[in-house]
Amino acid sequence: QVQLVESGGGLVQAGGSLRLSCAASGRALNINTMGWYRQAPGKQRELVASITRAGSTLYADSVQGRFTISRDNAKNTVVLQMNSLKPEDTAVYYCNAVTFQYYWGQGTQVTVSS
């Protein structure tokens, strides 16, 4: 089992920045990919960014160039730095970890006002 605890999020004006952090515990050494997903009201959950244990990253087109994902394998943490935020980035953001199955954090609200 893997447990994920998120921190960060909140309310910010358009153009601002926020930083989301996620710490994994439990069988964290078995984690390959970590990432962030988001779900806006009435929409499906979507991938925002992911990073493998080796450091390979993947970003959604909508956040490319504005968001940066990073990872500390020694601390089992993943961080999403979000810059130039837009109102359409408003959503609940979920930390994700993949071993042989998917694990999810509890979610943290990000609200971007126009």
Short description:
This protein has strands at residues 2-8, 10-13, 18-26, 33-39, 46-51, 57-59, 67-72, 77-82, 91-98, 102-104, 108-113.
Write up what this structure looks like:
This protein has no helices and eleven strands. The termini are far apart. With 114 residues, the chain is mostly beta strands. The strands form two sheets. Strands 2, 4, 5, 6, 9, 10 and 11 form a seven-stranded mixed β-sheet that branches.
Blueprint (SSEs and pairs):
Elements: E1 2-8, E2 10-13, E3 18-26, E4 33-39, E5 46-51, E6 57-59, E7 67-72, E8 77-82, E9 91-98, E10 102-104, E11 108-113
Parallel strand pairs: 2-11
Antiparallel strand pairs: 1-3, 3-8, 4-5, 4-9, 5-6, 7-8, 9-10, 9-11
Low-confidence stretches: none
Structural class category: mainly beta
Kindly provide the radius of gyration, computed on alpha-carbon positions and rounded to a whole number of angstroms.
Answer: 13 Å
Strand content: over 45%
Main β-sheet: number of strands, strand sense, barrel status?
7 strands, mixed
Helix amount, in percent? under 10%
